[in-house]
Write a structure and sequence with these properties.
Layout lengths: L1 H24 L21 H11 L3 E4 L5 H12 L3 E4 L16 E4 L4 H8 L4 E5 L2 E3 L4 E5 L14 E6 L4 E2 L2 H11 L8 E4 L4 E2 L7 E2 L6 E6 L1
Parallel strand pairs: 1-12, 2-3, 2-4, 4-7, 5-8, 7-12
Antiparallel strand pairs: 5-6, 6-9, 10-11
Length: 222
């Protein structure tokens, strides 16, 4: 069996290397733009509905409300899990009123992780702002910065994402172009496409949630 596998691998390797070598020799060889992957995915004329459908399939828990109902919606979610402590990014004040969120302790992630490591890893839930929602794949794009560190979406048991309806885009390519347009000189340290709660099937193909991130992820579309 090993000889058969080695022979197949050898043929595949030779075929790939021959194509690469041939590409340099072809006089009419030219670069072609990569096709936007959304064309291979069945979509409708309603990107918001497409996104909600795929987010639900990805195990997101999707909520919808108006902007002035955000705090009430967050409080209902938190109460349903009976959670007490929260952390949030330093630039969330323009979106929600932190004083209206019901939590026994509230940590603003505005210090280096080395200074607040214990608090970060012992906080029940976080609230973050998503930059875009991707209709084709049902994921949220989240950019990290000193005001909204990446650890906000990784450490807590529950992560609550806030997403504007007007920030829904058709595809991953559109979302990346949006970030590149806003950061023409230097991209954010991390550009995250979050597809619901973390999961793995590495052990005996059994899906386990919350292995390397939040066990529950709510997205509130407003």
């Amino acid at each position: 069996m090993s000889n058969v596998i080695e022979e197949i691998s050898k043929r595949s390797r030779e075929a790939i290397l021959n194509k690469v070598a041939g590409g340099y020799k072809e006089s009419d060889f030219c670069r072609k733009e990569t096709q936007n992957p959304v064309v291979h995915i069945k979509t409708t004329d309603n990107p918001l509905n497409d996104m909600i459908t795929r987010m639900t399939e990805n195990k997101y828990i999707v909520e919808q409300c108006s902007k002035d109902q955000l705090e009430e919606t967050i409080n209902k979610i938190v109460a349903s899990y009976q959670l007490n402590s929260m952390m949030y990014p330093s630039d969330i004040d323009g979106v929600i009123d932190i004083n209206k969120i019901q939590a026994s302790s509230k940590l603003c992630f505005d210090k280096p992780i080395e200074d607040i490591r214990h608090e970060v890893f012992h906080t029940d839930f976080s609230i973050i702002q998503a930059r875009a929602g991707v209709a084709s794949h049902g994921v949220c794009l989240v950019t990290s910065s000193d005001k909204q560190p990446r650890m906000l979406s990784l450490a807590p048991t529950l992560c609550i994402m806030l997403l504007k309806k007007e920030d829904v885009v058709p595809s991953l390519v559109d979302a990346l172009h949006l970030v590149k347009k806003e950061h023409p000189d230097c991209l954010p340290t991390n550009i995250l496409f979050i597809a619901g709660p973390s999961r793995t099937s590495d052990i005996e193909l059994v899906t386990v949630f919350g292995v390397h991130g939040s066990q529950k992820v709510h997205v509130i579309i407003y």
